[in-house]
Write a structure and sequence with these properties.
By secondary structure, the protein is mainly alpha-helical. The chain has helices spanning 2-12, 25-39, 46-70, 77-95, 98-104, 112-137, 141-167. Helix 1 (2-12) packs across helix 4 (77-95) and helix 4 packs antiparallel against helix 6 (112-137). The longest helix is centred in the C-terminal third of the chain and has 27 residues, at 141-167.
Length: 168
């Protein structure tokens, strides 16, 4: 288990590729659960947090499937989705210590520092996603960055929309 977790960490540092992960439905389920669990934030009530996180994971899986279908590489779905869910869990764990700081300094001048950290982590997530998609879709690096930016943008907009619906 430890070596598997280290594989996700090394993917986050661009040292290994998603195709180095085993193709396994069990791994897909474990990474989906890890991403779901680590996506729960303290600012949202638990039922709404689970709904939002589940919706986010569903959209990500759908996006990956659609992109792989477009490139005729659907056999890579399980491995690619496991990689994305795994790195999502890793990045979420990295952000956990900053959440209370962000909440506490949200409307103060000191809130700029955790906000910048959030921006950095988002850019890092997009870069890792581009790395995974470049290998999974067999596309150029620049193209994978644009695909990743589009994917994250759609996820952010959809998450904001469902958050507003869930909190009303």
């Amino acid at each position: 288990m430890k070596s598997l977790i280290m594989q996700f960490v090394t993917i986050c540092f661009f040292r290994t590729n998603p195709q180095d992960l085993p193709t396994s439905r069990v791994l897909l389920g474990l990474t989906a659960f890890a991403a779901l669990f680590t996506s729960i934030r303290s600012t949202v009530e638990l039922p709404n947090a689970l709904l939002i996180a589940s919706f986010h994971l569903f959209l990500m899986g759908l996006f990956i499937h659609t992109a792989l279908l477009f490139r005729r590489r659907t056999a890579r779905w399980s491995q690619t989705t496991s990689a994305v869910f795994g790195i999502t869990a890793v990045i979420n764990l990295v952000t956990w210590p900053f959440i209370p700081w962000m909440e506490h300094t949200q409307d103060t001048p000191q809130g700029a520092i955790p906000a910048l950290i959030g921006v950095f982590l988002t850019i890092w997530y997009i870069a890792i996603l581009a790395h995974i998609l470049r290998h999974a879709l067999d596309i150029r690096g620049v193209t994978s960055i644009w695909v990743s930016v589009a994917c994250v943008s759609v996820l952010i907009i959809a998450t904001l929309a469902i958050t507003s619906l869930a909190t009303t």
